[in-house]
Amino acid sequence: MRVSAVTMKLLALALVVGLADAFWRMPCRSRSGLARIDPLVSFNAVSDHAHAIHGSDGFSIDAGYDALMAGDCTSCGVSQDKSAYWTPAVYFQGSDGKFTLVEQVGGMLAYYLLYPNADNTSLSGFPKGFQMIAGDTNQRNFSYPVPDLPKSEWSGNMTDQAFLRQAALGFNCLNYATTPEGSLYRHFLPDKAYLDANCVDGVRFELMFPSCWNGVDADSPNHKDHVAYPSEVMTGDCPTGFETRLVSLFYETIWDTYAFKGQAGQFVIANGDLTGYGYHGDFMMGWDDSFLQEAVDQCTNLSGQIQDCPLFTIQDESVYGNCNITLPSALDSEDVVGPMATLPGNPPIESGPAYAGGAGTGGSGNSGSAPPTTSAVAANPVPTLSHSPGVVLASSDTFVPGAVFEAVTDVGAAPSTSSSAIVTAAPPVSSDTQSYFSTSYSTSSQIVNEVLWIEELVTVTASTTATMTLPARKRHLHQHRQRGI
């Protein structure tokens, strides 16, 4: 296992920049539900596809702000966060046509990134009752350059919200033995042959939410029109009419696609999407709005760790790991794991390039058939985009999730010129458990402190010649002298 630390040069600059590089990441290590529930799109009704749900156990088919806040628990790491975070689940369809749930690795991370507008350092938390959707479940095509042009060259339709919405999706091919790809590098789900050959640690689904707000409406009829993306998706300028800058929300969810290596079949997102273009996510705010604003103003530790904000009450796994929503009677016995003959809700499997049928059209599709081999998939194959190491950011650049920075390596470890700035959820370290580790960083004087978090009792291979057994939830602190300052 090779773990590296971020250079002091980057962190020292961040201390000057302030909010521009500050963030916290909310770990939601357990699901609170896996079900066809989506109160934003299918209020008081069963959704047409299955979602992986994290957050308050007050979530339901007719949930709103008050219901979330009245929940008894949350599956996320901070007890004050009763928000609901949900995205479609991912399935594997084998050669027999049957569907099996792909497992998540490490739950979900929701980043709260503090990116103010360039001309105003103020930043707003989400108002009471705020909710929104990112992505479009019916999208099945991408008509822009692949890979993305440099942001300095974005012009014409690449400045429109339609492009920014699609550029806010990422499918990060994970292989911890190589230099990581950058966030939002690939806006489509690679085909299975590529996943088998390259993504040995699964795929990290990434989703950036809009952070520019009209300053008035907590929601809109389509849950999108009250917000907009800044000109560079994460950073940049807000468009006219949406000048109020909100805390920026970013989801990361890792799916263990490599568990199906060598098996004939295909991966399909729960909404019947083979391409990834229709990936989407929903957010329903469940914070006390005054508390959230206080957190936005004060939780600016550059480590991004919730433990470093004294406002937060950190939950133990015994609490967040046993927080579950109550299913409606219509879904109480529905199989959402498989193997099963159809996707939950039987949404049509559509690969485009035409716009898909949309929610509510389930039952008329081909999800009960064997995977298509030449027709729909061949008509709109996803592009080929090989692994590309994330750009090593200069010390003047702003942090983004999954970004790659110049790094100082561990004492005695093999030299490395770059590493993931934040390792969000590393691979299971034992074939017998679902254990994982994550790495965080903080600074003290001229020292970078590297903290390795072990979530349960596991044996970790430290190098090719040594192993170490670590107790549950123990902090291991390593120090690295600053370089080049």
From TrEMBL:
InterPro entries: DUF1996. Residues 344-381 are annotated as: Disordered. This is DUF1996 domain-containing protein. Pfam families: DUF1996. Keywords: Signal. Residues 355-366 have a biased composition (Gly residues). It comes from the Eukaryota. Residues 1-22 form the signal peptide. Residues 38-287 form the DUF1996 domain.
